[in-house]
Design goal:
Largest sheet: 6 strands, mixed
Strand order of the largest sheet: 3-4-5-6-8-7
Shape: globular
Order of helices and strands: HHHHHEEHHHEEEHEEE
Strand content: 15-25%
Helix content: 40-55%
Number of helices: 9
């Protein structure tokens, strides 16, 4: 049997489960959290950059955004950096931002989960990515690069959510460097699907992104990964293209959106 201390220990899965239960509850505290963000557009943008873009800021109360963020209980000082006050708040805000995007215009983000399962009832992640390419071309090809740069990550997350919901999948973002959250890990039973999202910033940055993904796969003892590149260059000719790279003893499926 477990010792009392072991019995009380929180494992990552327990914490994830508790967070998911909490965020589904109606709560006046959560309502005021969202209201404070909506009533302060600059604070909303600031929190958006922290949660969605993974930008890090030094904590300085003389900055009015940080001051009000802490006053409202949204932000905190963690080792001198600005962080969302707690994991549940972060998930609430995160889900809200995705929901706002889902209701923007007539974007058809609902897809049929079963159509993305292979004959072994596994997620066909390459098919998901290729369909996302089609979706972006149909729905967002007319959008300017600023919109895609800001919302590309959210669009992908909003796209995959109905695919994995109800199928026993879960996804989380993981931090692979000090600056940015770069990867999404989708898990189902004993299988993990690792996807890195990047905005095209030039060939050198692209090669560094591949190396970084391979390093992360190495640490996770995984042989394959996926790289989704948001290409803001209209004339590149790469948008809609995909290929498999065999590099650093890894297999990388990369696709340009």
């Amino acid at each position: 049997g477990k010792s009392p201390q072991e019995a009380l220990e929180w494992k990552d899965d327990d914490l994830n489960y508790a967070v998911q239960i909490a965020v589904k509850k109606d709560n006046t505290n959560f309502d005021s959290l969202i209201k404070n963000l909506e009533n302060n557009p600059e604070l909303y943008e600031f929190v958006f950059k922290i949660i969605i873009d993974g930008v890090e800021y030094f904590f300085n109360l003389h900055n009015s955004l940080i001051h009000f963020g802490r006053l409202y209980g949204i932000l905190k000082d963690e080792k001198g950096k600005v962080r969302v006050h707690n994991r549940i708040y972060e998930q609430i805000i995160y889900n809200y931002m995705i929901s706002k995007l889902e209701t923007l215009g007539d974007s058809k983000l609902n897809v049929i989960a079963n159509s993305f399962m292979d004959k072994n009832n596994r997620l066909d992640i390459q098919k998901v990515i290729l369909k996302f390419q089609e979706f972006m071309k149909q729905q967002y090809s007319s959008k300017d690069s600023t919109f895609i740069e800001r919302n590309g990550r959210l669009l992908f997350l909003a796209y995959i959510r109905p695919i994995i919901n109800g199928k026993g999948f879960d996804f989380k973002e993981v931090q692979v460097s000090e600056e940015k959250r770069l990867d999404i890990v989708i898990t189902f039973e004993d299988k993990r699907y690792i996807i890195e999202l990047k905005i095209w910033r030039g060939e050198a940055y692209h090669q560094e992104g591949i190396r970084q993904l391979c390093d992360y796969l190495d640490r996770q003892n995984e042989k394959s990964g996926h790289l989704l590149i948001f290409d803001l260059r209209k004339e590149s000719g790469l948008i809609g293209k995909s290929e498999i790279l065999n590099i650093f003893d890894k297999q990388i499926f990369q696709a340009f959106v």
